[in-house]
Give the backbone structure.
Amino acid sequence: MDDLPNGVTKNRYCSPLVGLENCYALYIELERLEDLRCQFMYWRGINSSPKLKAARARMRDLRPGDVVVYEGWRRVVKIVQIFR
């Protein structure tokens, strides 16, 4: 299960059996805008930040370098990390 897409990492406490399809949470961090840090935790089955709009169908499909819209601003995904 360690075959993750390029740029996607695991939390250091994450089991080796966890992948994108069975993780419970995703940590997504966006590039800084005017020195403000922007980060989210997405929990499976819960839409925890409706302000983030992505062209991808699922948050699990996001990759570093993808462009999203947050509060009207186009931002670039910096980090995608999976949690169990």
Remarks:
- Strands lie at 8-10, 25-33, 36-43, 52-54, 67-70, 73-83.
- The chain has a mean pLDDT of 85.
